[in-house]
Amino acid sequence: MMKRLYLALIWIGLFSFWVMPVQAAEIPQEFDTWTSMSTTDTLKAWMIKFNKPIDSGTVNKNNIYLTDDRNNPVAATLTLSKEENSVIIKPAKAYTVGNKYWIFVTGGITGKDGIKQLSQPIAVPFEVKGKISSVASSYSEIITSFKVTTSSDVYSVKINSTPMHYQGDNTYTLGISGLKQGGKVTIYAYDSSGKLLTSESYQI
């Protein structure tokens, strides 16, 4: 039986992982659709790693490409590694937070021996999430309780000028008195150096 290449997607500079396939009705049947992933990096570069060197002539935008969730092409650059066993795909401009995208690897990729290496083309969905994942509140005339969840790169959170309390698992809580139902607060998220990552208005 012909030996086929396997591949993995790798978060650049973080870690590698294997992705198990799932079904996705919007993708043509010939594609093997993998488990959805997520990132908060709007310029996230992804590495597609093969188990042996591939033919550089088959590394092109017809065989490896990005689309948005409406199947519109997303401009990206492809870089083949020195070892010729991995390809980095990077968007030409920032992804839109809250949107879903797809990485496609077609059956046109071949090994250096000229043999087509993928038994089935692959589609990998991913979502671009914001630094502030969710905000919830519970109002009373005495105190309004807030719960905010964030991405893992957020180090601290404030509501207006008051620091929130970290509860673990990227979750922050705070109770504030004197607020009115229907009023607005501003939530600020910071990194470990105190740099503001994002802010958003929230209506109670």
Q: How is the CATH topology of the largest domain named?
A: Immunoglobulin-like
Mean pLDDT: 86
Q: Main sheet?
A: 6 strands, mixed
* Poorly predicted parts: 1-5, 10-25
Integer-rounded radius of gyration: 22 Å
Q: CATH first level of the largest domain: which class?
A: Mainly Beta
What's the SSE pattern?
EEEEEEEEEEEEEEEEEEE
What would the principal axes of the Cα set say about the shape?
Answer: elongated
Strands, helices and their partners?
Elements (H helix, E strand, L loop, with lengths): L6 E5 L4 E2 L14 E2 L3 E3 L6 E5 L13 E5 L4 E2 L1 E5 L5 E6 L8 E6 L16 E7 L3 E7 L4 E8 L5 E4 L2 E2 L1 E4 L2 E7 L6 E7 L5 E8 L1
Protein name: Ig-like domain-containing protein
Pfam family, one: Big_5
InterPro entries: Cu-Rt/internalin_Ig-like, SbsA_Ig
Short descriptors:
single chain, 204 residues, mainly beta, Immunoglobulin-like, 2 domains, 6-stranded mixed sheet, 5-stranded antiparallel sheet, disordered N terminus, signal, Cu-Rt/internalin_Ig-like, Ig-like domain-containing protein
